[in-house]
Amino acid sequence: MGVRISFITFTRNSGRRLGFLLESVRDVVDEIIVVDGYSSDDTVEIAESYGAKVFQRRPWGHVDPDRMFALSKASYDWILYLDDDEILGRRLKSELRDLVGKAEGGGIAAFSTVRVNYDVRCRQILFGRIYPDRQIRIYRKDRVLYRGLVHELPIVYGKVHELPEEYYIIHYVTPSKSKTLLYAYLESIEYYKHHTLPHYLSSTEAYAVVVFNPRPWTFSSRSINQG
Asked: What is the pTM of this model?
């Protein structure tokens, strides 16, 4: 048998969309791991119906603190990670195993893929300066480290291969004001600790700018356009 792949995702009351996600990966991975934040709907039952290993953890409101935990539960070296509102694009799904197999002999530690953001309310793909929104979602678990609080790309110890745009994942965007404010707060803590802006702020057209007063837990935010 070729290289085996573990799939990880994170859920909380994700029952309405989880089946769609797991259906998109079930035929191309060898293990499904779900880290759940004590869902009160049928999320766990749906995950188990796909043969997933489910681990319940305290909900933080964002998945980042659980990423290293999820990796520790993976049985196989190669990881595919998607959020519960994402799915694999057609070509990436059909060629995933071949890509990972070739990576083993090519010294590749991770793949960078385009994420296509689809606004569910407007029913259109979001372009502009946020595109191509590259993500690292396929990697060897022993060659990555997550250490940020929110929206952190993993630190990769090794070669990252940038896949062409036709190898993409689809993200179904449902904007939430409360989630945006939470992320802005967490990013203010990251900035206060490391004095660096999150990786994607230089590529988005509008974002929350944290204003320290001077503590990270007292801030205001405003939307601005980059020049």
From this structure: 0.73
My answer on whether 141 and 86 are in the same domain is yes
What integer is the mean pLDDT of 7-33?
Answer: 96
Give strand ranges (E) for the chain.
Answer: 5-11, 31-36, 53-56, 78-81, 86-88, 108-119, 124-125, 134-140, 144-145, 155-156, 159-162, 168-173, 206-208, 211-212, 219-220, 223-225
**Do the beta carbons of residue 149 and residue 103 sit within 8 Å?**
no
Q: Do 77 and 141 form a contact (C-beta atoms < 8 A)?
A: yes
CA 82 to mean position of chain CA atoms: 5
Residues 169, 181: one domain? Answer: no
Q: Do 31 and 116 share a structural domain?
A: yes
